[in-house]
Amino acid sequence: MAKGKSKPTPAPAGREVIEISSDDEGQPSVRPPLVPQQNASNIASLRKEVQRLKTDRDQYLQEAETLQYQLELNKQKIRSLEIQSGLDTDKIALSDSDLDDIISCNVCSNTMFVPYILPGCGHTFCQKCLTDWFDTTFRNFINAHPRYDANNPVVDQLLAYLQDPRVLQNPRMLEGIRQFIPAQPTPKYECPECRAPVTSKPIENFAMKSLSRMVASVKKETIPSTPQRPRAGGPWDGYFPSKH
């Protein structure tokens, strides 16, 4: 007698039946770790943050320089108005010698047709005398520090970050930046008259320039032509490099 198909053995009572199916629908898939992608994303975010801080820092420096320029210019306008207030149609309050003292450079004693004011102390000198003065300081510094690199942008960038209010409020970031600043000496420029430190570019004194030309015109003196500005940069970039 032929044997029939064997019947499936029933599962013992009380045991849970686990059905194995080839269908993976509904089962959580196992994904490879995303560590490399996460690192790349973090690096990209940090780069964006550094670029944003750099842009903000450049904006703050530009605004500070503009405000400083406006402040010094307004001071000179006030001084010029005070001088003019002592004049009327019939009487000159200032003698020629007093007026010459005002418009003359304290270094070369010539009329300041191209005057520049030092932002720190407020003293004004002609451009040539300041250039010669800074040149002497720079040459003496180079002789004492022959390995000085004036084109190293790292120090300027880190020092600029230290002026960012958000960095100043973050002690860990502040300390980290300070540790990366190399101990590199820099030239110490001073005012030729009072020896006050000069840490930023001199500003052209338009009020004094106008007064000097007005006096020269009244006296029928020859007014020299204004020196041409270089196409890139200014007369003080070699002493006070711009921040990038």
UniProtKB/TrEMBL annotation:
<dbReference type="InterPro" id="IPR017907">
    <property type="entry name" value="Znf_RING_CS"/>
</dbReference>
<dbReference type="GO" id="GO:0008270">
    <property type="term" value="F:zinc ion binding"/>
</dbReference>
<dbReference type="InterPro" id="IPR013083">
    <property type="entry name" value="Znf_RING/FYVE/PHD"/>
</dbReference>
<dbReference type="Pfam" id="PF13445">
    <property type="entry name" value="zf-RING_UBOX"/>
</dbReference>
<keyword id="KW-0862">Zinc</keyword>
<feature type="region of interest" description="Disordered">
    <location>
        <begin position="220"/>
        <end position="244"/>
    </location>
</feature>
<keyword id="KW-0863">Zinc-finger</keyword>
<protein>
    <recommendedName>
        <fullName>RING-type domain-containing protein</fullName>
    </recommendedName>
</protein>
<feature type="coiled-coil region">
    <location>
        <begin position="43"/>
        <end position="84"/>
    </location>
</feature>
<dbReference type="GO" id="GO:0061630">
    <property type="term" value="F:ubiquitin protein ligase activity"/>
</dbReference>
<dbReference type="GO" id="GO:0006513">
    <property type="term" value="P:protein monoubiquitination"/>
</dbReference>
<feature type="region of interest" description="Disordered">
    <location>
        <begin position="1"/>
        <end position="41"/>
    </location>
</feature>
<dbReference type="InterPro" id="IPR039577">
    <property type="entry name" value="Rad18"/>
</dbReference>
<feature type="domain" description="RING-type">
    <location>
        <begin position="105"/>
        <end position="195"/>
    </location>
</feature>
<keyword id="KW-0175">Coiled coil</keyword>
<dbReference type="GO" id="GO:0003697">
    <property type="term" value="F:single-stranded DNA binding"/>
</dbReference>
<keyword id="KW-0479">Metal-binding</keyword>
<dbReference type="GO" id="GO:0006301">
    <property type="term" value="P:DNA damage tolerance"/>
</dbReference>
<dbReference type="InterPro" id="IPR001841">
    <property type="entry name" value="Znf_RING"/>
</dbReference>
<dbReference type="InterPro" id="IPR027370">
    <property type="entry name" value="Znf-RING_euk"/>
</dbReference>
